Automatic annotation (TrEMBL):
It comes from the Bacteria. This is GuaB3 family IMP dehydrogenase-related protein. Signal peptide: none annotated. InterPro entries: Aldolase_TIM, IMP_DH, IMP_DH-rel2, IMP_DH_GMPRt. It comes from Actinomycetospora straminea. Belongs to the IMPDH/GMPR family. SUPFAM superfamilies: Inosine monophosphate dehydrogenase (IMPDH).
């Protein structure tokens, strides 16, 4: 049972931890980093890096999705983003970037305007086919509100992994008076598909367990917390990632027992600014990480050194701004697999994960989830 702290008369709260509160503890054994594997497998799809991209236009274009796949990760295209709405998506992005350089608030307003255009299935299909033509695994993100509407197009375009992602998600999305088809029941929705579905974000044991019971192949923990996100300021909602991941990992273990062996992957999304945070996320129980802001630091990122999440384009209540990300590397390869040119933990992210695993004596990701942890406070 997690520790309860009294915050006033008659009211208590659970004590939670973030990555900065924790340290990974070395063991008596070390091994060569060449003897360590960071490979990860989701359903039938194997990846050499435990990486999904956060589905934002600032990071993921058809070209960068393919490049991430070439490097060993999974690039996730936003099926409700600019590549699905505008024939000249690069030009639209350039306008957002130009406005951000003058006034980031104006850039958010421009994103809202651009996202007011309807999703065009022909453009979405074309963008996904560009990824598929490279041989990379094709993945796309939809919101719970538009999952039923867009999924037939995604399947026809060859999507192999579907990500149903919102800031906060539940096993049943309940629509308002404007909803035509009623609530999205994820269990029925996932059961109707022949491809793996990753769903989230969640922040606690109970919701993680509910999503696992829908048949999801993976559950996203967190909402992409970064320097750009403002969910805590706008909604008062926060996800203490270290505790949330440990709780989701506990749900995974209990679900494994409950189902007699069905394993659901836990994916950490947000609050990871350095390679050390990525290592801590895996140590807390994540099978893979979802990165966005870190990839925006590559010169080839579509956002041109600016970062935002899909929530920035919400028509009435954005939960993300647009923030400047210092460029640390010329390309995604340097950010992901090095070599690093500084000791700041912002390059060679997965080389650092491999080294952390080697320094603590673990040979693969599942073993590393058992590494010792200490609390600083």
């Amino acid at each position: 049972m997690r520790e309860q702290v009294e915050i006033g008369r008659g009211r208590s709260a659970q004590r939670s931890y973030v990555f900065d509160d924790l340290d990974i503890v070395p063991s008596r054994r070390t091994r060569s980093s060449s003897a360590v594997s960071t490979a990860w497998q989701l359903d039938a799809y194997r990846f050499e890096l435990p990486l999904l991209t956060h589905p934002t236009d600032a990071v993921v274009s058809p070209a960068t999705a393919a490049r991430v796949g070439e490097l060993g990760g999974l690039g996730v295209l936003n099926a409700e983003g600019l590549w699905a709405r505008h024939a000249e998506a690069e030009k639209a992005l350039a306008e957002v970037v130009a406005r951000a350089a003058v006034d980031p608030a104006e850039a958010v307003a421009e994103l809202q305007r651009l996202h007011a255009a309807p999703v065009r299935t022909s453009l979405l299909t074309e963008a996904l086919e560009r990824v598929r033509a490279t041989g990379a695994t094709v993945a796309a993100r939809v919101s719970p509100q538009h999952a039923r509407e867009l999924t037939p197009t995604l399947l026809a375009a060859g999507v192999e992994v579907l990500v149903v992602q919102g800031t906060i998600i539940s096993a049943e999305h309940v629509g308002g008076e404007e909803a035509v088809e009623g609530p999205l029941d994820l269990e029925d929705f996932i059961e109707s598909l022949d491809i793996p579905v990753v769903a989230g974000g969640v922040g606690d044991y109970r919701t993680a367990m509910h999503l696992m019971r829908t048949g999801a192949a993976g559950v996203i923990v967190g909402y992409g917390q970064s320097t750009a996100t403002s969910t805590d300021a706008v909604l008062g909602i926060g996800v203490p990632m270290a505790t949330a991941l440990v709780d989701a990992a506990a749900a995974r273990r209990d679900h494994l027992d409950e189902t007699g062996g069905r394993y659901v992957h836990v994916i950490a999304d947000g609050a990871m600014s350095t390679s050390g945070d990525i290592a801590k996320a895996i140590a807390c129980g994540a099978d893979a990480v979802m990165l966005g802001e870190q990839l925006a630091a590559a010169e080839e990122a579509p956002g041109g050194g600016w970062y935002w999440t899909p929530a920035a384009a919400h028509p009435s209540l954005p939960r993300s701004g647009i923030s400047r990300v210092p460029t640390v590397a010329p390309d995604l390869a340097t950010v992901l697999t090095g070599p690093a040119r500084s000791g700041a933990g912002t390059m060679n992210l997965f080389g650092a994960l491999r080294r952390a695993m080697a320094k603590t004596g673990y040979s693969d990701l599942k073993e590393f989830q058992r590494v010792g942890l200490s609390v600083r406070r």
